[in-house]
Design a protein that fits this description.
Elements: H1 3-10, H2 13-25, E1 35-38, H3 42-53, E2 59-63, E3 78-79, H4 86-100, H5 102-106, E4 120-125, H6 130-142, E5 148-149, H7 152-158, E6 167-173, E7 177-178, H8 181-194, E8 198-201, E9 205-211, E10 214-220, E11 223-226, E12 229-232, H9 240-245, E13 252-262, E14 273-276, E15 284-288, E16 292-296, E17 302-303, H10 316-329, E18 337-348, E19 355-358, E20 365-369, H11 379-390, H12 406-409
Parallel strand pairs: 1-2, 1-12, 2-8, 4-14, 12-20
Antiparallel strand pairs: 3-7, 4-6, 5-6, 9-10, 10-11, 13-16, 13-17, 13-18, 14-15, 15-16, 19-20
Helix pairs in contact: 3-8, 3-11, 4-11
The structure holds flavin-adenine dinucleotide.
Flavin-adenine dinucleotide binds at residues 38-44, 62-65, 69-72, 74-78, 181, 204-205, 233-235, 237, 240, 256, 258, 344-346, 371, 373-377.
Length: 423
């Protein structure tokens, strides 16, 4: 007997008949799953696949647009376990294991992550970021993550186009790099479908249906779907939950710009991702297409009044400003040209860390939002813990630190680098 039958039996035969009639004739869809996932970005698709892998029963994913076409499609794709917030290290470590052998992880030979295993190099000069870097590297080592401390000369060997003459501390994480978030979202989604998950694109969830406070389903642009558990993976649109339920969703949409620079020297795939804690914008850089440099600032972006991931303008002044920071570190990029650029929107919380897990005030609702510009690297492990949470199973890592409640209690997950996605 499945979970829904148990529920119907529990409310008695007369009401059960009524429930069945309502579900058949009262604007409800015939397909009533055990779990509904809202959103098919890299998080929702991962949740869906993990639900199926954990034997969740009928899983329905409702996506307003297309799979992977939300903010995931704008991601820089960097994968690292480096964090100053130790809770994130474990989620990132578990996720790396999935990315490292992605097709095997999802059990689908057609799945791909587009992984480039080039490593992650992070450096700080003397100054305020030095001790936080030292502490974060030591914490990583303590958890058993492979990590090397490099001299300036060793760093130059790995990334010869970059100057390290002012670096006081350089960490190198060999098991890191970057991958393709759209590819990961669509791969998770296809593998989920192959395990029986139903994914409907072009369907907007317009509200949550509740009985005595408990979730019983969702209203959508295509009618009602009944389910006792709903997982929201809505990213910047998680604020809709506030409208629907009155719960707080402390997340704001923040636009960031990403530039691809074409310099006289190639930033090749074998060169590591580089995080420059010494630059005003705390730049991150990586190879783009095997020769160009993808560069973006790791600090605060432009707050939008409404969630909207349409492309925004990037002024020439801004290109010049970021280009100058890049050239400061990569001298030959003094003469670089702008090859392409785009904007993307982060779902930023007050402590730049996500909200994960059940919401006490709305039984049946599980949320995963507020990834603050670093959710891709966490997506496999987050998908699994949210699926476990939805099914009432013990989670691989404790979700208590990530609870929504922390914004009331003040037990924030604030990183020691200040505001920004390095967290
Ligand atoms: C410019 C940029 C660079 C980044 N770089 C990195 C990086 O280097 N490394 C890293 O780890 N992370 C990075 N990130 C962050 C990472 O990409 C995101 O955290 C992650 O992709 C978010 O996935 P998601 O599934 O939560 O969101 P999304 O991909 O936005 O998916 C949410 C989905 O929910 C759907 N939805 C919302 N509301 C509804 C509704 N009511 N009904 C139906 N569907 C709905 C939307 O249509 C959307 O498709 C970056 C992000 C940006 C923008």
């Amino acid at each position: 007997m499945d979970q829904r039958c148990v529920r119907l039996a529990a409310i008695g035969p007369a009401r059960a008949r009524l429930a069945i009639l309502t579900s058949t004739y009262g604007h409800s869809n015939m397909y009533n799953p055990d779990v509904i996932v809202i959103g098919a970005g890299v998080i929702g698709s991962s949740v869906a696949w993990h639900l199926a892998a954990l034997g969740a029963g009928r899983v329905l994913v409702l996506e307003r647009g297309q799979i992977g076409n939300g903010t995931s499609s704008q991601s820089s794709g960097i994968l690292r376990t480096h964090y100053s917030v130790i809770e994130n290290v474990e989620l990132a470590r578990r996720s790396w294991q999935a990315f490292d052998n992605f097709a095997a992880y999802v059990g689908d030979e057609d799945a791909a992550a587009g992984l480039v295993k080039c490593g992650y190099l992070i450096a700080a000069p003397e100054g305020p970021k030095l001790e936080p870097l030292r502490a974060a590297l030591a914490a990583q080592v303590a958890t058993g993550i492979p990590l090397e401390l490099l001299t300036q000369a060793q760093a130059s060997e790995r990334l010869p186009i970059c100057r390290f003459d002012d670096a006081a501390l350089i960490g190198f994480e060999p098991q890191a790099g970057f991958a393709d978030a759209t590819l990961v979202a669509t791969s998770f989604a296809r593998a989920a479908r192959r395990r029986g998950v139903k994914i409907m694109e072009g369907v907007a969830v317009q509200g949550l249906v509740r009985e005595n406070g408990r979730i019983t389903g969702v209203e959508t642009s295509q009618g009602r779907f009944n389910a006792p558990v709903v997982v929201s993976a809505q990213n910047i649109w998680a604020t809709e939950l506030s409208r629907w339920t009155g719960i707080e969703t402390p997340v704001k949409p923040e636009r960031h710009a990403v530039l691809a620079l074409e310099g006289p020297e190639a930033y090749s795939y074998s060169m590591p991702v580089y995080k420059d804690l010494g630059s005003p914008g705390m730049l991150y850089c990586r190879s783009y297409g095997g020769s160009q440099m993808l560069v973006s600032e790791g600090t605060v972006g432009e707050t939008l009044s409404e969630p909207d991931n349409e492309q925004g303008d990037i002024s020439m002044d801004y290109v010049v400003e970021v280009g100058a920071q890049a050239a400061e570190r990569f001298p030959s990029f003094e003469t670089a040209g702008l090859a392409s650029s785009w904007t993307g929107v982060y779902d930023v919380t007050p402590d730049w860390n996500p909200v994960l897990g059940r919401v006490d005030d709305v039984p049946g609702l599980v949320v995963g939002f507020g990834f603050s510009g670093h959710g891709f690297k966490l997506s496999p492990a987050v998908g699994r813990v949210l699926a476990q949470e939805a099914l009432g199973l013990p989670t691989d890592v404790s979700l208590a630190p990530y609870a929504l409640e922390r914004f009331r209690s003040g037990r924030l997950l604030t990183g020691s680098y200040g505001s920004g996605a390095v967290s």
